[in-house]
Design a protein that fits this description.
heterodimer, A: alpha/beta, FAD/NAD(P)-binding domain, Cholesterol Oxidase, domain 2, 2 domains, 11 helices, 19 strands, about 20% strand, globular, B: mainly alpha, about 55% helix
Chain lengths: ~525, ~160
């Protein structure tokens, strides 16, 4: 069994950030990343143009298959009352889900670290926002976030590396409505690089609006950054092995992990690699599944699962979309000019809403909906298109709401392997009864905003429970009775095994988790160094 | 270092014949006609190289595109013989050609695999500006530089 100092399972943002931090301290550090997926060609003109004209993305074939239906085999099992969709939520590739993420890079608020103290629900983080704040700054610089350094929505000690993108003209109706209603708003911090005096091998955003496949690599994607380390970093002992599907952890005794067994998809063989320490950075779902299926004499219910917590308390963000029809005309010919939002309202991401579920509201870049391509491809004439552009428009307001972990909600391994060679996923999730009431409140807020936009709310929102922000499956707590990992992300009672994924979050808050995860990865790198 | 990964390659990639000048000129005329029909691009000649690059990339990704382009050229030729100056309008607006799924007839292929893709390309190359915007998905408008004019409409005085 060959060996390395640090073995990292996964190659997404957590893996990339913790590896970078370790290498910053010791450029000769021996690090091996095992990635189940393969490389997707990036920044390729032909692939980009294919996306431009057909909407096809080169990595969707690495999405989870849809749940089985009649006449459609599918993969994975949805066992709960709420369908938490996996298809489209994550990508099994080199670079992980950052290959398709939106780049929204919010900080949690101080009260998010005190959920139990403030509301009596769940558990608190084992440290306070103030203790973690500097890692948010480091993470913003690592991801290349453009944001408003004067924004006091959350206290900060360091500026963003790049200035905020100005609010778009399409933002103006919602922005004016928020102002008139006295609701706070800000620039949406986003991981798209700007222009800097500091030289970088990563290009600035050219506002091209094809962010799901950026032709320049301006939106953070972990594979680009790992490539950068491999090609230019002078890190002689950094390696990555693709097509390596980790099957189980190998324990030498109860408190020591010795290595892993993985399926080498290039030849179908099972191989082993040993490591002095291991970091599981395989996302909230796969990290928990790997721990749980690693059953042995020391850990009969899975490594770290002595208290039946691994895989439990799973949450994600319900993502809602409200639509409204403009009463007057679209005289300014508002139409999608960007592919990422620049306006966010965190007014209800507040202590006052914490017990019921904090939420944020976004003005999406596709609002109002004007689809020139579709109109022209249907053969509609110019005068009719002009009327469509200037006529009453359909506006949208999107958002996310925090929901809370319940012990009964869980993910687990399903014995049948998926197309990647790892066990399929069983999701058992049922939304709590209070969710409907909180959505009704959100609808009343959105209705007021639409009214101030001279727009009529069309009705109830569409709500997606897709597992993009799956979290809390291996929660962090100082005691093994309440958490799977401790405050340093080490699995309780295993001295050399760490988890770095959204799974360690005690709770999710109302915002995207990636910036927080990146900060945790950098903090872990410091701890291990 | 990476382990070696096999790169998928279409078996026809090496043997696909190159785009002929005659075929490109036919497609160029189609592309330019999109601009004149919808008023989205009065002078498309600035984008000849980009169209050629686009077509070459489509063929590289899927060699069948050479056949699609040849089919479209034949369709345009036949329509011109039949309808004269109304040929392109018929191609752009024929309802059956635009909706058959999947496109199987020469007209359907010319519309959906060629003409409609050129519509997308032309809008992204600047055709969208005819409808009042400054930026558009696929248009390389430039970075956000403090103090400079933003690369999209903001509501601020430009």
């Amino acid at each position: 069994m060959s060996g390395v100092d640090t073995l990292i399972v996964g190659s997404g943002v957590a893996a990339a950030a913790v590896a970078k931090r370790l290498l910053d301290y010791n450029s000769s550090a021996s690090i091996l990343m095992l990635e189940a997926g393969q490389r997707v060609k990036m920044q390729d003109a032909a692939i980009w143009q294919d996306y431009l004209v057909t909407g096809k993305l080169p990595y969707t074939k690495y999405y989870d298959r849809a749940f089985p239906e009649r006449d459609q085999p599918g993969e994975n099992v949805n066992a709960g009352q709420t369908s938490v969709t996996l298809n489209g939520a994550r990508v099994f590739t080199y670079g992980g889900s950052t290959i398709h993420w939106g780049g929204w890079s919010f900080r949690l608020k101080p009260e998010d670290f005190k959920l139990a103290e403030n509301t009596g629900r769940g558990i608190d983080w084992p440290f306070a926002y103030e203790d973690f704040e500097r890692y948010y700054g480091l993470a913003e610089h690592y991801l290349g976030v453009s944001g408003d350094s004067a924004d006091r929505t959350v206290d900060r000690s360091t500026p963003y590396p790049f200035p905020a993108f100005p609010h778009t003209l399409e933002d103006q109706p919602m922005l004016a409505a928020l102002k008139s209603l006295g609701l706070s708003f800000s620039h949406l911090p986003i991981a798209r690089r700007g222009v800097s005096e500091q030289p970088s091998r990563h290009a600035p955003c050219q506002t091209t609006g094809t962010c799901k496949y950026c032709p320049f690599g301006a939106r953070f994607s972990a594979n680009n950054y790992i490539d950068d380390m491999l090609q230019w970093g002078h890190y002689p002992n950094l390696q990555i092995r693709l097509g390596a599907v980790v099957q189980q952890l190998i324990m030498s005794d109860k408190d020591t992990v010795a290595g892993v067994e993985y399926l080498d998809t290039s030849d179908g063989s099972l191989k082993r690699v040993s490591a002095a320490r291991m970091i599981i950075a395989a996302g909230a779902i796969e990290s928990a599944k790997l721990l749980k299926r690693s059953r042995n004499a020391f850990w009969p219910n899975g490594v770290g699962n002595g208290h039946d917590l691994v895989g439990r308390h799973i949450v994600t963000h319900p993502y809602f979309i409200f639509q409204g029809l403009q009463k007057s005309s679209n005289s300014k010919k508002l139409q999608p000019e960007m592919n990422f939002p620049t306006l966010v309202c965190r007014h209800f991401d507040s202590v006052a809403e914490q017990a019921a579920g904090k939420f944020i509201l976004i003005n999406p870049p596709g609002s109002p909906k004007v689809d020139l391509v579709r109109l022209m491809q249907r053969g509609i004439g110019r005068s009719e298109i002009d009327k469509a552009v200037e006529g009453p428009a359909t506006f949208e307001i999107h958002g996310m709401v925090e929901v809370f972990g319940e012990w009964t909600n869980l993910i687990d391994n399903h014995p049948i392997p998926n197309f990647m060679g790892m066990p399929q996923t069983l999701v058992d999730y049922s939304e709590e009864p209070g969710f409907t009431a909180q959505m009704a409140k959100i609808q009343s807020v959105v209705s007021e905003i639409f009214a101030a936009m001279d727009t009529t709310l069309s009705g109830k929102p569409s709500i997606s429970w897709r597992a993009d922000h799956a979290a809390c499956t291996v929660r962090m707590h100082t005691t093994p009775e309440k958490g799977v990992v401790n405050e340093n992300l080490r699995v309780h009672n295993v001295k050399n095994l760490f988890v770095c994924s959204n799974g360690v979050f005690p709770n999710l808050g109302a915002v995207n988790p990636t910036l927080t995860l990146t900060g945790l990865a950098m903090r872990l790198g410091d701890y291990l160094s | 270092m990476f382990q070696v990964q096999t790169i998928a390659k279409h078996p026809l990639s090496d043997s696909a014949p190159e785009l002929s000048t005659e075929l490109f000129e036919s497609m160029w005329a189609l592309f330019a006609s999109i601009g004149s029909y919808w008023g989205t691009m009065t002078n498309a000649s600035l984008h000849r190289t980009q169209l050629l690059n686009f077509m070459a990339n489509r063929i590289k990704l899927d060699p069948l595109y050479l056949e699609y382009y040849a089919t479209a050229a034949k369709v345009v030729k036949d329509l011109t013989e039949k309808l004269g100056a109304g040929a392109y309008q018929e191609l752009f607006t024929n309802t059956v050609a635009g909706t058959e799924t999947p496109p199987q007839t020469p007209m359907g292929i010319a519309r959906q695999r060629v003409s409609n893709e050129f519509v997308s390309l032309q809008l992204a190359l600047g055709g969208f500006m005819a409808f009042g915007a400054v930026n558009y998905p696929g248009f390389i408008c430039g970075p956000n530089i403090p103090g400079a004019v933003p690369p999209y409409r903001t509501g601020a005085v430009r």
